[in-house]
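Moderator note: this is an archived Q&A kept for reference. The question asked for a predicted structure of one protein chain; the sequence and the answer are reproduced below.
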Amino acid sequence: MILVTGGAGFIGANFVLDWRERCDEPVVNLDKLTYAGNLGNLAALKGDAKHVFVHGDIGDRALVESLLATHRPRAIINFAAESHVDRSIHGPAAFIETNVVGTFSLLEAARAYWAALPEVERARFRFVQISTDEVYGSLAPGAPSFAETCAYEPNSPYSASKASSDHLVRAYHHTYGLPTLTTNCSNNYGPRQFPEKLIPLMLHCALAGKPLPVYGDGLHVRDWLYVGDHCAAICAVIERGRPGETYNVGGNAEMANLDVVRTLCRILAAHKPGCNAEERITFVKDRLGHDRRYAIDASKIRRELGWSPRETFESGISRTVRWYLDNEAWLAAVASKEYQKWISLNYAAQAA
């Protein structure tokens, strides 16, 4: 049995689905179901007795302790987080509450549970913190990619809150011996991603015949990681990672945002002739404090755990576009009034 927190969100849900497909081990899935948490992401597991969904908050110490006592998981995988930079700029308090205070509460419950386990189970237990490359700050063009030894230099309320939680995870290993591991991933994309992030936002706008809003000059660079590859990396960390270690996970696909959008438009046009979305790319006022470049050095996880991404960006984005075209009802359902309100708040006044 494993306990997954935030398992109805984008990466968490893909991980839970992938886990249940890979092995027969049960999953307890704890999710607060905020705007980006979506039970529709888990529809394929309806009726699966080995997937137990619990609606709740990682900051609810009594609930977490009850789940640990009842289900006795061998691992906790913490995806639960507020995760969008733009939202953190408009409302940072929620990021501190979930990412810092919530992670602290989860660590406290995990530490008490782990300390009371029999020796064999205690040796096997793992706490895996899912984090981001954004904690490392911004890279200059041509600078070496982020390695696990890079100093943390977060530049947004979101990345600062994730850096804080990562430091807590590290401290709980070094102070108490809790067998923690941390993964810092690059930009994920793939099925079931809430359309506030770049790729699903562009797809949503393209399919709706709307302008495709690109920040600044569009030359901000990110490394792109297909979510299925990320899930495989997390499995490798759970099974073979060394407690106390950090593993960077990247897709080996460093691209400027504008090139990502143009590639997406080209592939969408191939799937949907007549959809000429590229001509609707619109440059808008840049995000506050927008980091210029991220890039991940994933040589450690490749060397120590034998993981490397299977998908190229071209193959991964093709799979992603196909999924969204096959699941337009999912996209329409998540593009609610709250979502439209958010898009208006963040982009309507941004025209360059």
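Archived answer notes: The mean pLDDT is 93.
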